[in-house]
Amino acid sequence: MKVLKIMAAALMSVMASGICFADETAEVKAEKKVEFSVNADVVSSYVWRGMYQSSFAVQPGIEMTAGKFTLGSWGSASFRDEETRELDFYASFQAKAFSIGVTDYFCTPSWDDHSYFADNSHVLEANLGWDFGECCDKFALTIAANINFLNDKKVGDEGEEKEEFSTYIELGYPVESSFVNWDFTLGACVNESAFYGVDKFGVINIGVKASKDIEITDRFKLPLYAQMILNPRTERAHLVVGLSF
Questions:
Q1: Domain range list for the chain
Q2: Which of 73, 134, 151, 200 is a Cys-bridge partner for 97, taking CB atoms 3.0 to 4.6 Å apart?
Q3: CA separation for the pair 147, 234 (Å, rounded)
């Protein structure tokens, strides 16, 4: 399948990038320990990059980390059949402050709408990131660039389909405190994009997230968060409450 071949090629590119950065020192060898993690969120609504996707949803994830390499899968399922269901896979490599990766998105209102293995059923996205917190103790700003490169189509002047290469840039800044942890987000699509619903550069995601572990007993804490999200382009605001496990 065309999409599977491209996914494999993208994964190999991420792995090749890692080889360029890694030196076979004792420290690097120690970092090659393979670890697995499983997590899940339960959210009052699913809002992705400022865009509403579904109402109440369960969002499980599984991840494997081997040194600087990460492979994972993440999904979201609403309890309403007509709403978005999503299954994503991702691979990434991180070298100190810099990260590079690829994400495979599969979203459909119903699993019966189209085949998971159809060539046009997946959107592939390249991911680049820089975390200033890795090199500056008092400046934790993160910058991420995400560029669609497969199945993000637009119709040209002559009626032909071509890739739109929708590009989303996001700035993030975490603030930790003894009472609650804060995360501030500012995201924009920098080009015309039907995928993000903009006809030119536009800020689509302004978010403030507060997280806190609520102590229930000496051994159990409830990981609660609330997030306020504003999309200036659609003039919509969302308040999301969630639990992370």
A1: 2-244
A2: 134
A3: 21
Which CATH homologous superfamily contains domain 2-244? monomeric porin ompg (2.40.160.40)
Question: Mind listing the pLDDT tens digit for each residue in 129-141?
Answer: 999 988 888 899 9
Instruction: Please state the φ and ψ torsions of residue 243, each to the nearest 5 degrees.
Output: -120, 135
Please give the distance of CA 108 from its chain centroid, rounded to a whole number.
17
Q: Please choose, from the candidates 231, 223, 227, the residue with its C-alpha nearest in 3D space to the C-alpha of residue 202.
A: 231
41-90 residue pLDDT tens = 999 999 999 999 999 999 999 999 999 999 999 999 998 877 888 999 99
Side chain identity, residue 160: E
Instruction: Report residue 117: phi and psi, to 5°.
Output: -95, 5
Strand 221-231 relative to strand 202-215: parallel, antiparallel, unpaired?
Answer: antiparallel
DSSP codes, 68-128: TEEEEEEEEEESSTTS-EEEEEEEEEEETTEEEEEEEE-EESSTTSS-TTSTTS-EEEEEE
pTM of the model: 0.84
